[in-house]
Design goal:
The mean pLDDT is 97. The chain is built from 11 helices and 12 strands. It has one domain: Aldolase class I (TIM Barrel, Alpha-Beta Barrel), CATH 3.20.20. Bound molecules: ligand PBG. Ligand PBG binds next to helix 6.
Length: 331
Amino acid sequence: MTVATRLDLPPFTRLRRLRNTPALRRMVRETQLSPADFIAPFFVTHGRGVRQPVSSMPGVFQLSVDELVREVRTLGPLGVPAVLLFGLPASKDALGSEAYARDGIVQQAVAAIKDATPETVVVTDVCLCEYTDHGHCGVIEGDRVLNDPTLDLLARMALTHVEAGADIVAPSDMMDGHVAALRVALDAAGHEQTPILGYSAKFASAFYGPFREAAESAPRFGDRRSYQMDPANGREALREVQADIDEGVDIVMVKPALSYLDVIRAVRDRFDFPIAAYNVSGEYAMVKAAAANGWLDERAVALEILTSIKRAGADLIITYHAADAARWLSA
Ligand code: PBG
């Protein structure tokens, strides 16, 4: 066998030179993942001492407020600055009343976290689907989800969250005009400094399946395709982001993350707003299931996925892997 000499070859570039040692690779690494990028989601439920596992999301629990506070206390030392709260109400009704009750479960959880660890940035999800008996994200008439009547309820919900101490409100309902409705209500009550994180480009995704078990929020009839986006539409995602910006949003979101990395990149290229990406329940469940079977290395795959989301252009990543990933990054 003969070995080719340089003389036999056209000129070529030696990209491997900078891959030869860990130190060199670190020096030229383009994307740095940090625990400061993460927002950890939690599901809070009534009761005391409750840690109810979510079967499709190993490592995720429905937590009562006391247990939630214990979990949240561990995040600060790991460098994870923020949490995102979802609530499981004591009872559901057509208008999702507990969503905007002053003593609702999320309102209680916000107050308890801000009391225990005031430095934690508490973000609350603003949407009716966990609270309505029909499981849709807004007020219904027949089988239609009504836009404008829903806005008033969302605004009331956001206001009660902020009055309980929430630092950021995050409307995920996909009603048109929702950012404007929240902004007007918050400003009128003197909360003009509270930022809004808009779920701007939220797609009607099958990757939300495990979340709907965790949040007990599956629609009782139909689906969410009349308000959430068609997964086929990338350009429309930019119009959704523009609409939220026009209404005064502070941070925009693309959700889900992994099948929508092109959308994250397009938003990054077009807009100079902070971008959050939601590494959703189905993305987490797939990694957990494969790892449990010994088919994938959970740590390596999760960090690779999170890095890809950051590389695509996200500044913030909402992820159920937040605490583990923070541990892995500091190990
Ligand atoms: C509520 C909401 C959903 C998610 C976040 N907020 C579910 C849905 O729209 O059906 C999904 C998050 C996840 O899958 O991790 N509207």
